[in-house]
Amino acid sequence: MIHVYDESILEYAMDNLGVALDYVTNILHQDGQEFLNLFLTSGVAKEFENCNPRYVTGMSGRDMADDVYRIAGKSVPSIEGEVNGEYSPEYWCGWILAYYQGMSHLEFKKILPILTYEKLMSSYILHEADKTKAYEVFDKAVKAETFLARMRKKRNMTQAELATKSGVSLRSIQLYEQRKNDINKAQYNNLSDIAKVLWCDIEDIVE
User: Fold this and answer.
1) Which of 49-58, 73-82, 162-171 bottoms out in mean pLDDT, i.e. has the lowest?
2) pLDDT given for residue 84 in this prediction
3) Residue 193 and residue 167 in contact, taking contact as beta carbons nearer than 8 Å
4) CA 180 → CA 8, 61, 114, 184, 185, distances in Å?
5) In the predicted model, is pLDDT for residue 82 greater than 90?
6) Of 29, 43, 142, 154, whose CB neighbour count within 10 A is largest?
7) Which residues make Cβ contacts (< 8 Å) with residue 111, sequence separation at least 6?
8) 188 and 194 Cβ atoms separated by less than 8 Å
């Protein structure tokens, strides 16, 4: 279950992820995409989206980044220096990413495959607009394809194959992927059977 940020906590989260990405790229000179990958696989992203105060308000973005690397078992250079005092493009990317996650309530594991570091940086042109504009752009990209379709393709499976292996009708799968039927209202047994075939959790395919 993803907890919902209140407005003040969301601001802390946005600043922390912004500082973390700025620190990683501009002080440690590490790859931004690699950091986002480690943020996800280390489990810190899950704690962050669930409002764990350790990461949202209990430590700085710099300390959070260090924790990501520590948990991932990756050695990074110990470099003294202050994080950029101005809002760098990298800071904005982390800041707006946290905003999108907090407002959409989607898991980072659904967001980051689409909102890559390159995609975030290319969106910096939106930094002078209201943050809701970036949200609209990101939401359109993330939800351009259903999570069911994305997971099915990730497993290199056709709709027909998924139907045969799961026992869920081909027409039902087609309607879920076209959003003509709401997958969030699907029978639990159908969702469970589909998820088992795709080797994922039910949460990975619902909207």
Assistant:
1) 73-82
2) 53
3) yes
4) 37, 41, 23, 12, 12
5) no
6) 142
7) 97, 100, 101, 104, 138, 142
8) no
pLDDT-above-90 percentage for the chain: 86
Sequence-separated (6 or more) residues with CB below 8 Å from residue 193: 166, 167, 168
Q: Which amino acid is at 158?
A: T
Distance CA 109, CA 139 (A): 14
Cα dihedral sign, 184-186-188-191 = negative
Alpha-helical regions (H) of the chain: 7-26, 32-41, 44-49, 53-56, 61-72, 89-104, 108-111, 117-122, 131-142, 147-154, 159-166, 170-177, 188-198
Tokens 């075939």 belong to 197
Q: State residue 77's pLDDT score.
A: 74
Residue type, 13: A
The string of DSSP letters for 21-51 reads: HHHHHHTS---HHHHHHHHHHTSHHHHHHTT
Which residue pairs, CB below 8 angstroms and at least 24 apart, start in 150-153? Answer: 150/113, 151/198, 151/200, 151/204, 151/205, 152/177, 152/198
- Mean pLDDT (the chain, rounded): 91
Amino acid at 35: F
